[in-house]
Amino acid sequence: NSGDLRSGNGGSFVNSPTPTFTDNSTGSPSHITNTGIGGAFTFTNQGSYVKTGATETKIEIPFTNSGTLLVNAGNLHFASTFTQSSGNILLSSGATAQFDTDLNLTAGSFTGSGTISGNVTNGNASGAIATISPGAILGQLAIQGNLTRLNTSQLLFDLGGTSQGGNYEVLRGSGSAAIGGTLTINLVNNFSTTIV
Description:
By secondary structure, this protein is mainly β.
């Protein structure tokens, strides 16, 4: 299964708070685009957007998320702007979320064990808390790019032992890191330790 979702000329697609938009493309890469039509086209997710297909879905228009964005497989590729005003992004192991214009996580949370492709800024100037938490359950989250954490950012780790990626969560980056904000550690699996 594959295909494109197209509109333009001021069109908008709004996934309201209750429905689930399921993206299960398994054939050729799919596109959400205004190509061939022209004019503005936007996608707003207030409910659940779930990507299950193993191929790429390329979103070529501005995307706003205030609901749940779940990437279970493949590559969800944001070629235009991405805005998260609240809500959650969940990334499964082996899946990729690609942000060509960078990910500015100003609110809500990003949790998972896959790969973020693009530079990431965590936090904002308004005081709202934005959280990054590697691993849904004791996993590893990779950032292919730079990480900037502002004072309103929160980095949340689960610690359940001494085995990397199996008993404690890992955040890996390929670029530079500017660290601010809060570090929160949750002890799990009845693990106890002394942090000095």
